[in-house]
Amino acid sequence: MNAEMNGGGGDLRINSVLEYSKKYHHQDDGQGQGQGQGMFSTGEEEKIDYVYKVVVIGDSAVGKSQILSRFTKNEFCFDSKSTIGVEFQTRTVSINSKLIKAQIWDTAGQERYRAVTSAYYRGALGAMLVYDITKRQTFDHVARWVEELRAHADSSIVIMLIGNKSDLGDQRAVPTEDAVEFAENQGLYFSETSALSGDNVDTAFLKLLEEIYGVASRKALDSSNGKVNGGDMLNGLKIDVIGAPELEISEMKKLSACSC
Q1: Helix (H, G, I), strand (E, B), or coil: what is residue 220?
Q2: DSSP 135-196
Q3: What does the pLDDT look like over 137-155, one tens digit per residue?
Q4: 6 within a domain of the structure (yes/no)
Q5: Quick one: which of 1, 5, 101, 165 has the most CB atoms within 10 Å?
Q6: Domain count for the chain
Q7: Full-prediction pTM beyond 0.85?
Q8: Is residue 165 part of a domain?
């Protein structure tokens, strides 16, 4: 796959997630959920600069809860059950010397909960839209999820499309090229992950949070300069697409005992 792609509104670069993963390599310190060393907070007494609300959306059984569990607790639960309604977990990270608490909402994918979860889109600064690379139908529904998200969320929300279960490549039903094309057309970030092995999970979340920080910083700067009113100043922002299977290389993480 080429390192750059041309699309409407300018070039969309497919960046090396390996380089990003090296920049923000997670090390578990065993001091609690979502904590670590390096860029991660290790004490609740530290002052939180920002709280970012992120929603994880997509069809049922695509691995949303598993991705969230991997990011916040570095766990994978083999006996995981479908989420009922909405749950959330947190993880504190450091971006540009600022402590940022990610409040990540795990929304149920079942149709009967759609009306309930739509209310939780409000106030979200970022979204992880997850599909299962082994189930074509879950990818076919992505457009509907994007439409629903944009109907309820702020226009400046940062969205990352995630093809989960990359460890099941031999059962792939969704070509990576299809996802890249959709992400390009919709102005989304894109990556493929494996909640089972942990491949690219941290990379995807941290990239999303870094972009949210950038969007919020630009919005604050432009607002202070009197250039904008409300949340429409970033409407139409073109967001790069990231991720490619041949670039998605990260250390296999040892599966911890499931406590959920």
Answers
A1: helix
A2: -HHHHHTHHHHHHHHHHHS-TT-EEEEEEE-GGGGGG--S-HHHHHHHHHHHT-EEEE--TT
A3: 999 999 999 998 888 899 9
A4: no
A5: 165
A6: 1
A7: no
A8: yes
